[in-house]
Specification:
The chain is of the alpha/beta class. Helices cover about 35% and strands about 20% of the residues. The protein contains 7 helices and 10 strands. The chain has helices at about 20-40, 50-60, 90-100, 120-135, 185-190, 205-215, 240-250; strands spanning about 1-5, 10-15, 45, 75, 80, 140-145, 170-175, 180-185, 195-200, 235-240. The radius of gyration is 17 Å and the shape is globular. It binds 6-phosphogluconic acid. 6-phosphogluconic acid binds next to helix 2.
């Protein structure tokens, strides 16, 4: 296990190989859940799409007998595609079915799917109201993020309108490069969370990580650069393969 304080906004954590990294992420999730529940009686987590978050969801299910009080866990999503809940591209479907989160003893009334397949602008406003109502002034406790090879995170894609939003927690975002619309949390919403985790596993993420961490700050081009604040550092949780090029670059 390696920890590198990259700068005042970002801590790099390299637990080891793929399995060790997934296990670390799931254990850290459980600790954050227990801490939040003892502090304010619920744990609000934002899930994402993508292959790395999926592997962590499956690991959480394997650990479901652990001490977490599942009835106090609230599931939100950091982004959603404009497809119905039973579509294989849906992030809700991915987490619940492929990630097997439906096997956890969660309360159905604590699972908050983003409805992005119709009236996306109106539904984004409604999701923001729901978030404020359920959290009663709290920020999210944990945000689980993946990172695309183009540097996007959640559905904050390069050069899209949601990157410019100054106020607001949830946006309907047109993504011309994918010829679609997505619903997404804004950076203000993601960065308010106490635990901001960006997970990356595998060689295919190695070059993007170098670009995100070492190229000049330009989140329009590289949105993942904007993850993390001075108050709450983002944890970049990487396996050895994903971290390989950045370690080389840092002479480590
Ligand atoms: C989405 C995601 C997205 C994802 C990354 C990484 O819905 O597209 O929320 O931000 O996490 O694209 O995905 P992979 O791990 O599959 O590359």
């Amino acid at each position: 296990m390696r920890e590198i304080l990259f700068d005042e906004r970002r801590l790099i954590i390299i637990p080891g190989n793929r399995e060790e990294t997934i296990l670390f992420a799931a254990q850290q999730w459980m600790e954050a859940a227990n801490k939040a529940i003892s502090d304010h009686d619920f744990f609000a987590v934002a899930l994402s799409g993508g292959s790395t978050p999926k592997a962590i969801y499956q690991q959480l299910v394997k650990m479901k007998e652990s001490s977490v009080d599942w009835s106090k866990v609230y599931l939100f999503w950091s982004d959603e595609r404009s497809v119905p809940s039973n579509h294989p591209d849906s992030n809700y479907y991915m987490a619940m079915e492929e990630g097997r989160l439906k096997e956890l003893p969660l309360l159905p009334s604590h699972i908050f799917r983003m409805v992005a397949e119709e009236n996306i602008e109106e539904n984004a406003r409604a999701y923001e109201d729901l978030l404020i109502e359920k959290l009663g002034g709290h920020a999210l406790d944990l945000v689980m993020l993946g990172m695309g090879e183009d540097g996007h995170t959640a559905s904050l894609f390069p050069h899209t309108a949601a990157l410019k939003i100054k106020k607001g927690l949830v946006a309907a975002n047109e993504v011309p490069q994918k010829n679609t619309w997505r619903m997404t949390f804004t950076f203000d919403c993601l960065n308010a969370a106490q635990h901001i985790c960006l997970y990356a596993i595998g060689e295919s993420k190695a070059q993007t990580l170098v670009d995100v961490l070492f190229s000049p700050y330009d989140p329009e081009k590289n949105p993942s650069q904007k993850v993390g604040t001075d108050t709450y550092k983002a944890h970049f949780i990487l396996d050895e393969e994903a971290a390989s090029l950045l370690l080389k670059k840092m002479d480590l």
